[in-house]
UniProtKB/TrEMBL annotation:
A Pfam family reported for this protein in Swiss-Prot or TrEMBL: Response_reg
UniProt entry keywords in alphabetical sequence: DNA-binding, Phosphoprotein, Transcription, Transcription regulation
Superkingdom as given in the UniProt entry: Bacteria
Domain Response regulatory: residue ranges: 7-123
Provenance organism: Phytohabitans rumicis
InterPro entries: CheY-like_superfamily (IPR011006), NreC/VraR/RcsB-like_REC (IPR058245), Sig_transdc_resp-reg_C-effctor (IPR016032), Sig_transdc_resp-reg_receiver (IPR001789), Tscrpt_reg_LuxR_C (IPR000792), WalR-like (IPR039420)
4-aspartylphosphate found at: 58
SMART domains: HTH_LUXR, REC
Domain HTH luxR-type: 148-213
PANTHER family: TRANSCRIPTIONAL REGULATORY PROTEIN NARL-RELATED (PTHR43214:SF24), TWO-COMPONENT RESPONSE REGULATOR (PTHR43214)
GO biological process: phosphorelay signal transduction system; regulation of DNA-templated transcription
Name of the featured protein: DNA-binding response regulator
GO molecular function: DNA binding
Length: 216
């Protein structure tokens, strides 16, 4: 029926904000809050079950962050629109959310009317990102395609070179020989790579590197 209320699921790990937003939206005519979730995994499970029109999604949540939860929902429940409501406005986070499939992006300081308008717009198939964020998204695309992303940008050129050989299955001795480095230098660089990638051992580093296309 055309007069059916817009069903909304709220996902946020802060109970005061979550329940406050739920109460606020429940008081709005034409919106029905069908549930609240405290983690990313809970948000996915509840959204797949309830199939709401819109999920209002925080990004910083335990057991799966909001960007990954948005990506999963876009793949598994494409009819569910996601409006991100978060504290973060840095470009990397905004574009990561957009790439994941979010159709709305608002900051937590947004007025009630702006949140309701975003929910309504996304529920009817539109997209909304707030005036400031929309302008930055337009500037981003107007600047043309970005340079190709480099895997593991936190690594130095030397560390990336060594990780490439680690991913190819080379031992430290083989790497030292191939790059004309001392075994100690290779060991130090390998340790730095493990620390920067937050991996426990060589096997885990190889898995991470090969997923990123290294060592093929």
């Amino acid at each position: 029926m055309p007069d059916d209320p817009i069903s909304v699921l709220i996902a946020d790990d802060h109970p005061v904000f979550r329940e406050g937003l739920a109460a606020l939206l429940a008081s709005v005519s034409g919106i029905e809050v069908v549930g609240t979730a405290a983690t990313g995994l809970e948000a996915i499970d509840m959204a797949l079950d309830a199939q709401p029109d819109v999920v209002v999604m925080d990004l910083q949540m335990p057991r799966l962050n909001g960007i990954e939860a948005t990506r999963r929902l876009a793949a598994e429940a494409p009819s569910v629109g996601v409006v991100v409501l978060t504290m973060s406005e840095d470009d990397g986070t905004v574009f990561a959310a957009v790439r994941a499939g979010a159709r709305g992006y608002l900051l937590k300081g947004a007025e009630q009317e702006e949140v309701v308008r975003a929910i309504t717009t996304v529920a009817t198939g539109g997209a909304v990102f707030g005036a400031t964020l929309a302008r930055r998204i337009a500037d981003f695309f107007a600047a043309g395609p970005p340079a190709a992303e480099v895997a593991f940008p936190e690594l130095t050129t030397r560390e990336r070179e060594i990780l490439e050989l680690v991913a190819a299955g080379r031992s430290n001795a083989q790497i030292a020989s191939a790059l004309f480095l001392s075994p100690k230098t290779v060991r130090n660089n390998v340790s730095n790579v493990f620390a920067k990638l937050h991996v426990a051992d060589r096997a885990e580093a190889i898995v991470r590197a090969r997923k990123a296309g290294l060592g093929q």
